[in-house]
Design brief:
149 residues, mainly alpha, 7% strand, Pra-immunoreactive
């Protein structure tokens, strides 16, 4: 139980680090593309372009990549875990979108990260109680994270 909790935590950190690197690269690109300086601050079109690109990157990383590497992001691949439906079958594109884009990314953004903290507490509680590890997005979309060989 603790082993899977540890793997999920490290995979989350790897994925978060990759997105931070992508976001900072995106920020630099937008700043230079729109010639942002002290005299010419970031205007609405630059901000909209940055937000649109970041949403695209998140969609690619958390929806497209797991479809191509069934059930795995880079962090999950390195930690040898994957996402499956509750019945053990592969997830669909719609389920990846609901689970990882809507429930994880957008809900986390809207709650200012509270959901991440809530899921961490929920997983720790389940580990202590020796229950199956299941986060809020796993419950809503009916998925599970399992270890692969």
């Amino acid at each position: 139980m603790f082993n899977l909790l540890f793997r999920r935590g490290v995979a989350f950190l790897i994925d978060a680090l990759m997105l931070v690197v992508i976001f900072f690269g995106n920020f630099g690109f937008i700043m230079s593309a729109f010639s942002v300086s002290i005299e010419n601050p970031l205007q609405l079109n630059g901000l909209l372009a940055m937000v649109a690109l970041q949403l695209l990157y998140v969609w690619i990383y958390f929806v497209y990549v797991p479809v191509k590497m069934p059930g795995q992001t880079v962090g999950k691949k390195l930690m040898k875990i994957k996402e499956l439906r509750a019945d053990g079958k592969e997830m669909t594109l719609k389920q990846y979108f609901q689970r990882d884009f809507m429930m994880k990314f957008l809900l986390s953004s809207l709650t200012r990260g509270f959901i991440v903290l809530f899921n961490g507490i929920l997983l720790a509680y389940q580990c202590i109680r020796k229950q199956e590890l299941c986060t809020l997005h796993d419950m809503v979309v009916r998925t599970q994270v399992v270890r692969v060989k």
